[in-house]
Amino acid sequence: MPTDAQHLDARHPGAQHPDAGHHVLILGGTRDARQLAEALAAQGLRVTFALHRPTGAVPPPSGCSLHLGSFGGEEGLADFIRAQGVTQWVNALHPHATTMQARTIKLAPAVGLPFHRLERPLWQPGAGDRWSRHDSVEALIAGIARMGSPAHGKPETATATDIGAQRHRLLLTVGPKSLADFLPLTGPGIEAALFTRRFDTARGEAFDRLVTWIDGAPDPDLAAETALIEAHRITALVTKNSGGPRPAKLDAAATAGLPVFLLNPPRLAGPAYSRWSDIRDAALAVADLR
User: Fold this and answer.
1) Residues 61, 37 contacting (CB under 8 angstroms)
2) pTM of the entire predicted model
3) pLDDT tens by residue, 188-247
4) Residue 127: what are its φ and ψ, rounded to 5°?
5) DSSP letter string, 124-165
6) Residues 6+ apart with CB under 8 A from 200
7) Mind listing the pLDDT tens digit for each residue in 171-204?
8) CATH number at residue 277
9) Nearest-angstrom CA–CA distance, 197 and 193
10) Which domain holds residue 139?
């Protein structure tokens, strides 16, 4: 993997850049961000796609340059924008990338360039969903503490420890980087057993004694996610409301009748777009290509 703060010129050989002054910086973290980057590059704009802490090897979006790692705080990001001749920039960060979200919102007025923000519509409950939504980790944990003892499945599939302690078995899909915030779930008053995914087996090793790791990515197949819930006898799902397409894990939880505890992303002030295609049109208009 490229080292931290590495800038790679990975533009497609056939990309056309009619005016080097048009340079769009996209702070990515979602699938929508990659689609936006490739769409702008296809229209002839110079595009840099930036990821702060990617998981595994990351190919650049077609026709784009790739920046991996930290910019070095607000000052470093501002210096990069000036040095690279960026003419407009886009916050298409993951909704829960709290530090970078706050940094870009604060810096945008000082940079003085056209600035676009993608705000993905949050997941909404449907028929069969048993959701509770919370604005902080502390409130979410308190909600789980009020849930009471779980109702385990068939007695022959439950261990004596589970039956005696009446422990919740939580599928925690918040990412290894956020795991420490949720460890009070294992403490007094809840004492839950935590099952959590990781895409990279080198991540999260400090928590090996506190969680059961499920190595692999979320599965888009409902049957696969339902089977995972059944195999680990999960009693509740804990996740972040990241918006965008509804993932299969939510449908699997609804199918199993499980409660779902969702952490909302921070609320951000200011105008935003809900579709990447609208940002594309705005960026092309700024560059006089619309």
Assistant:
1) yes
2) 0.82
3) 989 999 999 988 776 777 888 899 999 988 999 999 999 999 999 999 999 999 998 999
4) -60, 130
5) ---TT-EEEEESSHHHHHHHHHTT-----S-GGGS-HHHHHH
6) 55, 56
7) 999 987 889 999 999 999 899 999 999 887 767 7
8) 3.40.50.20
9) 14
10) 130-263
